[in-house]
Write a structure and sequence with these properties.
The complex is a heterodimer of chains A (310) and B (250). By secondary structure, chain A is of the alpha/beta class. Chain A contains 11 helices and 14 strands. The radius of gyration of chain B is 20 Å and the shape is globular. The chains are: A alpha/beta (310), B mainly alpha (250).
Chain lengths: 310, 250
């Protein structure tokens, strides 16, 4: 659906997006993550034809985003950051105008208006002026606007920005439902949201792609992912060399606790699980165990690990 | 053409489904009434060498409010879209930039044209309500309206240009007034010289006052028509490129 190859955008000397390449297959929900100013919005603006790329190329459904911009725009439903709307129009009037711009007319426009207002929960406010609506409703109007022509690809720039938890949940469910029929590329920095909705994650920082994979793979391949901690009643000097002899273990750190207990932190390679071996080891030597746990990484930790400046 | 019509109607609705367009219309009608009253007062005081239409559209009052119509009509058009970010939504829909420029320009110009209905009604009323022979001919009215239509083309385009330059409505309005004042004052330069100025024909060619004096006598010349149409096309082209600038390959 989306193919981007070495796409760049410079503002004068500042490189906002630097040679990024990634692909989004039809039917995927892709989360586009990155800290503020990482180049997320710039990339999305290039995809939607609002900004031209400085170099590189992108194709959406096989059409070039710069040369066939008008054709590309027909396939995309785009919700820009902060959801700009004509605030002195009424909800239905606005959606009607946007639908007409997308080539809908007459009965099909009326039918589609009813559908998107139903999907986005706007039926009760359809006669209200947009400027009187709360942020959550405006966000829904923006989403309805992006959906009005039933596009193959939805590009949403921070769709849940500034919403309260209930509204975030509602929008998330909406996106999950839409994902059954549409390809979705959404930018956000709310990570729990990505873990719940997206089946692929692209992390960008400083204009460069840091990672692109499924959330599970990202979490498992984290540097800290294989770390296991075990609490034993045994001598440190006795235990440490025995644990260190396992192949995947890189380092063991023991620390004393009260009443003869010791806690050992076992650093191991990512994607490994040493818990079973440690358990057996303790059994063989009859060491009492009080806790054995493997640190399961979160997407937030992946994000911090990849984008931290130090 | 379909897209253009949708955009044009949306812009026109923005004028007339809010108090905005009606306020301008009321202001224009008020000023036209005041000026007509003042001109008629002149007629009742002493004999006038020119027609009612000529004096009506060549009084300083006329120019004063005429120039201020354009910033009010146009300053919102592009600057408001840039400020609120709706330009992004508009230009990522399958519309061409020229459709956006021409629809906004067209709606502003249509609104401007509607402002002259009260003036026409004034002259109609004069002939139908009084039994004195009217101190003007309909050819003069037609000429004056042609002048207003021509100046409207150029001045509305200049207003669009000013609005596309900035994201602040106020600055757009000030720039528009500035451009129109400079254009108007250029035409007054020859009158500042007691001796014949070599460049006088050039300034006379630009002068809105000169155009209006000829046209309000019913004298329709092709030069001002060519002048206004060509400059309008040029200014709209610049506006188009200002708006399309972000799509240029850097």
């Amino acid at each position: 659906m989306i193919e981007i190859s070495s796409l760049s955008k410079s503002y004068g000397r500042h490189k906002a997006v630097d040679q990024i390449s990634f692909e989004v297959a039809r039917g995927e929900i892709v989360g586009f993550l990155g800290p503020n100013g990482a180049g997320k919005s710039t990339t999305l603006r290039m995809l939607t034809g609002f900004l031209p790329p400085t170099s590189g190329a992108g194709r959406i459904a096989g059409k070039d985003i710069f040369r066939e911009s008008l054709e590309v725009r027909k396939d995309i439903g785009y919700m820009p950051e902060n959801v700009p709307l004509y605030t002195d129009m009424r909800v239905r009037e606005y959606l009607r105008f946007r639908g007409a711009l997308r080539g809908l007319a007459g009965g099909s426009l009326r039918k589609r208006l009813g559908e998107v207002m139903e999907i986005c929960g706007l039926t009760s406010v359809r006669r209200k002026m947009i400027k009187t609506l709360s942020k959550g409703y405006r966000q829904r109007v923006g989403l309805a606007d992006a959906l009005i022509h039933d596009p193959d690809l939805l590009i949403l720039d921070e769709p849940t920005n500034g919403l309260d938890p209930n509204q975030i949940r509602a929008i998330r469910e909406l996106i999950q439902n839409l994902g059954e029929k549409h390809t979705i590329l959404l930018s956000t920095h709310i990570l729990s949201e990505v873990e719940m909705t997206c089946n692929k994650v692209v992390i960008i920082d400083g204009g460069k792609i840091k990672a692109a994979d499924t959330p599970e793979n990202l979490v498992n391949s984290m540097r800290r992912a294989g770390r296991v901690s075990i609490e034993l009643k045994a001598h440190k000097n006795e235990v440490e060399p025995l644990i260190a002899q396992f192949d995947e273990v890189t380092r063991v750190v023991g620390e004393s606790m009260s009443n003869g207990w010791n806690r050992f932190t076992v650093f191991a390679a990512p994607k490994t699980d040493t818990r079973l071996k440690l358990g057996q080891l303790a059994q063989e030597h009859h060491w009492p165990i009080r806790s054995l746990s493997r640190k399961s990484g979160t997407l937030e930790e992946v994000f911090v690990e990849l984008t931290r400046k130090d | 053409m379909r897209i253009f019509r949708i955009l044009f109607l949306k812009e026109l609705r923005a004028y007339f489904l809010s108090p905005f367009g009606w306020l301008i219309l009321a202001f224009a009608a008020l000023m036209q009434g005041l000026i007509l009253t003042a001109t008629l007062k002149n007629f009742s005081d002493q004999a006038q060498p020119e027609s009612l239409v000529f004096l009506n559209f060549n009084s300083p009052f006329f120019w004063f409010y005429f120039i201020f119509l354009f910033p009010v009509l146009t300053m919102r058009l592009f600057s408001e879209e840039t400020r609120s970010g709706t330009l992004e939504g508009l230009l990522t829909a399958p519309v061409r930039t020229w459709q956006v420029v021409l629809s906004k320009y067209g709606a502003a110009y249509t609104t401007f044209a509607l402002l002259w209905i009260p003036a026409l009604i004034h002259f109609l009323l004069f002939t139908s309500l009084t039994d004195i022979p009217p101190p003007f001919t309909w050819a003069e009215v037609g000429g004056a309206m042609t002048g207003i239509a021509l100046m409207g083309l150029l001045f509305t385009a200049l207003g669009c240009l000013a609005s596309a330059l900035t994201s602040s409505q106020i600055i757009a309005g000030v720039v528009c007034v500035g451009l129109l004042l400079v254009h108007f004052l250029l035409g007054l330069i020859p009158s500042q010289y007691t001796s014949q100025l070599d460049a006088a024909p050039f300034f006379d060619f630009l002068s809105s006052q000169n155009h209006m004096q000829d046209l309000a006598r019913g004298l329709i010349d092709t030069r001002p028509i060519a002048y206004h149409l060509s400059t309008t096309a040029f200014v709209l082209l610049v506006t188009y490129h200002l708006l399309d600038f972000r799509r240029w390959k850097p």
